[in-house]
Amino acid sequence: MASEEELFASVDALLNEEPHLPPLAERARLREAAGITQARLAAALKTTTQSVKNWENGRSEPKSPRLDAYQRLLNGWAAKYPAPGTAPAAPAVSVAATASAEPAASGVGPANAPQAPAVPAAATSRPASARPAAASRRPAAKKAAQPAADPRFPHGPLAVLDGDGSAYGVDGIVLDCPATSVVELVEWTLRESGLGAPRLHRNGKDSDPLIVLTAAAAVKLGLSERLEGHEQRRSLRLPEDHPVVKQVVKAKWRLTQRGFGPWARIYRKVQGRERQCVQLAVLSWDALDARSWPGVAEMEPADVARVLGVYATRVITPRGSTAVSGLELMTALRPPTRAVQDPQTGNWVPGHNPGSLGTEPMDPAPPEATPEHPVVVNSGWSGGFLDEEAYQWVRDVSLLTDEECTLPFAVGLDLNTAFLAAAARLVVGLSAPDHFVGPKFNPKIPGSWLVDLSHVEVDPRLPSPFTPDGTRPTGPAWYQTHTVAYAQELGYNVAPIEGYLRRETGAYLDPWHDRLKTAYVDTLADLGVTRDLDDRQFLAAMERHKDTDPAMAAVLAAIKATVKGGIGKLRERPQGKRYKEGERWPALQRPTWRPDIRAAVISKARVNMHRKLTNMVKLTGLYPLAVLSDCVVYPSPGASPLDFLPYAASGKPQPGAFRLGPTPGLAKLEGVQTMLWAVDLMEQGYNPARHIKGGDAVLDEGE
């Protein structure tokens, strides 16, 4: 029999528990009965309206001292406004009501009710007086109504951890994280959080869970609020003797070669078939670059979780910058290996996955490499390089007509994700390059061709389609297949002198294009820019789309940066002052270091741009003033592209020229002042791609 001391200790434990709040519907009923709005209640409790909404729909619960104040207020209202059919008694919820609420808090429902997958047992093995480690605060009924897509990851791909231990996930879910150190956080994430995302391809790997740390959470875990140094913050790392790094190593966890920086990966070697890896991102260390994620770092944790959650669902769980994520998406959709059966042993072993880039890095042909690449330095190559870059061209002032000079406006047309559109059905090389002398040109073979295109006549009022600066070639040069094919399309004979060609080919980027295109179009639709709008409605929707929902606007910006950054990463240059020419840098160890694929995308995009410029001349007689990357500026009698774009008598846009619309490859109105500033920069000899439209520069080197 229990002693008196034991009984009193048990009773005291119950008395010391946090007060229980009424059921969710009762909280809202009491507030409405008192005639108080959620905003007014939020002001009284010194919190946000969204927090009050979360308290009433079960997505989160208040913490002391707000919990006590909120409880007192509800008790007072319950005394004044008793529920219909009940006597005005003490408003505290009954033991039965409390008991019925517990399963919802722990994720365990009645035996006969449909349930979402339960959190692992370790999450519920704490003492009753402790806060459940990873309990969802959403009601069980809501989980049952929206079952998780994968039962292994009931709480989505990621969470944003705040300093009070609240981990905000997708769909408004909030988990309780008891971790007080980075090691505890990693173990909680893998064992109890229910975070992660299923693979994007059957031969691929599941996405590791992502934990985003606010400044308060970083400090609580022993990290500094800011990561300071002379270098760019994104390139900074904690020193190896930092206490947190020592804790990680002592607990038998590992860090990647990138160390503990804004994006830190903590892992252990794979045991069996289970991966043990957690991705961390520290907001106050500039993990989310403002160019790619505008305004996200300053958002509330729940809003950060919403932005990153939508991106993770539509694109991929972030593993670094948008450039890194763009490259990771390529590999996730085209895994390098698949399971094959060994004919001798009968065992299933990893084998090459057709259509992928494989597991081993591949050296490029000398003209496809960069000047500091070992292939160039060690061979003494001096035969020139591919110069397949985006347009940076301004029409000579002497070629402007009097009529053009009198037009009052200059209107910029920007192509939606032009480089993504160029990746569609793009055939690229999958094998190593082979060298040929005097090959016959074949537009179906991807590679690099040494050919003289100086004889191709192009109207000087248009940029040359063969050079980034739009000037006419002066002799033999290296070109990617699409550039040479366009010269042939224009009716000119091409006679290659040399070629580095690839025998094995495939549309490697097709699934990458399809996923990003769908993400881009769906996100624009969330912002009110849909395919069913006519041109006037489209321009009006684009003008206000960033103000419709800042969170979704940030997702859209991140998707665009993923496209350009991913393509740029295909030719990432060496970084750091200590690098010496001829050394191999880390990026060269990736199978996805493929400058030839990057050149193919940019070549096709530039050719597509020139084709549209030529068709505009045929349909309207208009010539551009300047072209910067995927944006072209035209003189116009009005401030809208509707004043000069070609339309048929029926009112439909003419095919072949520039058209307005939300689909990749179609045009939208660009800021004219920004473009005119870019024109001025180019006339002064500067590279405007490094100053404006934050994603273009990454096409040069990646991040």
Walk me through what this model shows.
With 703 residues, the protein is an alpha+beta fold. Helix content is 34%, strand content 13%. A hairpin with a 6-residue loop joins strand 8 (337-341) and strand 9. Helix 3 packs across helix 4, helix 16 (481-489) runs parallel beside helix 20 (595-620) and helix 18 (535-548) crosses helix 19 (550-569). The protein is globular. Residues 88-148 and 688-698 have low confidence and may be disordered.
Distance linking N and C termini: 69 Å
**Percent of residues in helices:** 25-40%
Averaged pLDDT: 84
Shape: globular
How big a fraction of the residues is strand?
5-15%
The major pleated sheet works out as: 7 strands, mixed
Which stretches of 5+ consecutive residues score pLDDT under 50? 88-148, 688-698
Q: How many DSSP-defined strands?
A: 20
**Structural class of the helices, strands and pairings?**
alpha+beta
C-alpha Rg, in Å? Answer: 30 Å
- Please state how the strands of the largest beta sheet are arranged side by side: 3-2-1-4-7-6-5
The tally of helices reads 22
